[in-house]
Amino acid sequence: MATDQIEVDIKVPNQTRYLCLIGHIGENVARALKHYSGDREKLAYDLNLVLTEAMANAITHANEGDPEKKVHIEIAIVDQQLALRVYDHGQGFDISQFDLPHKPLAEHGRGVYIIHTVMDEVEYRPTDDGHVLEMKKNL
Amino acid sequence: MNLQIDDKGSAILMQVQEERLDAHNSGELKTQMLKLFEDGKSNLVVDLSDVRFVDSSGLGALVSGFKNASSRNGSLKLSGLQMQVKSMFELTRLHRVFEIYNDAEEALGSF
């Protein structure tokens, strides 16, 4: 079966101004896939969304807003599975809250729910100098 | 953030003239809304016609504005949601919280 083999590896400063850049790369990966029969524009939006959510979490919670730190992002497609990895250099953050906040008018707490809803597998694990949030989606 | 703010009499119209409403610029929207509340305004229409992408921070800023307006006996209503932005409200069930109108004129007319 024909498959796409794409790998993107990028490091950006730990600043929210780069969310747009990373989100757009995710969208463009979805649009560039040769072999995808689903709703391509929905996939593009979803990749933009989960990369934005994961990177914003890394910047504000794990890297504690330190502009000198870097966020490292990998996008890889192997055998019809897309993997997004967002590496941080901090103490980590809680991804165990899968559900929407109990209070409908909570101002925070929807990001992790969104990632879990859009992706098929989500794992957050320690690395040598921080953590990685790995999010997989079957194409 | 490019934000056009106009007093339309029945309510204040805030047009978010950005492609994205995300963790980078949502704080500024929140600050601008707070300024309006402090000036005694409590009825707002936030028009999102230009916004193609919203994340959880953007949604959080709008929820913050909604709560502030309600606590002042006013209301924050939304207009002009593009299809994928509307999907975000449905995904997070916030479409049950906000009054959402097709365009700004319709939203302003509801006050």
Strand order in the sheet with the most strands of chain A: 1-2-3-5-4
Helicity range of chain B: 25-40%
Tell me the distance between the termini of chain B.
Answer: 27 Å
* Amount of helix of chain A: 25-40%
User: Which secondary-structure class do the elements of chain B indicate?
Assistant: alpha/beta
The CATH architecture name of chain B reads 2-Layer Sandwich
Percent in strands of chain B: 15-25%
C-alpha end-to-end distance of chain A: 13 Å
Q: Report mean pLDDT of chain A, rounded to a whole number.
A: 90
Q: What's the overall geometry of chain B?
A: globular
Number of distinct helices of chain A = 3
Short description, anyone?
The complex is a heterodimer of chains A (139) and B (111). By secondary structure, chain A is of the alpha+beta class.
Mind sketching the topology for me?
The complex is a heterodimer of chains A (about 140) and B (about 110).
Chain A: E1 6-13, H1 19-32, H2 40-62, E2 70-78, E3 81-88, H3 111-118, E4 121-127, E5 130-138
Antiparallel strand pairs in A: 1-2, 2-3, 3-5, 4-5
Helix pairs in contact in A: 1-2, 2-3
Chain B: E1 3-7, E2 12-16, E3 20-21, H1 26-38, E4 43-47, E5 53-54, H2 56-71, E6 75-79, H3 83-91, E7 100-101, H4 104-109
Parallel strand pairs in B: 2-4, 3-5, 4-6, 6-7
Antiparallel strand pairs in B: 1-2
Helix pairs in contact in B: 1-2
Describe the structure.
The complex is a heterodimer of chains A (139) and B (111). Chain A has a single domain, classed as Heat Shock Protein 90 (2-Layer Sandwich), CATH 3.30.565.10. Chain A is an alpha+beta fold and 139 residues long. The longest helix of chain A is centred in the middle third of the chain and has 23 residues, at 40-62. The radius of gyration of chain A is 15 Å and the shape is globular. Chain A has helices at residues 19-32, 40-62, 111-118, and strands at 6-13, 70-78, 81-88, 121-127, 130-138. The termini of chain B are far apart. In chain B, 40% of the residues lie in helices and 23% in strands. Chain B has 4 helices and 7 strands. In chain B, β6, α3 (83-91) and β7 (100-101) form a beta-alpha-beta unit. The chains are: A alpha+beta (139), B alpha/beta (111).
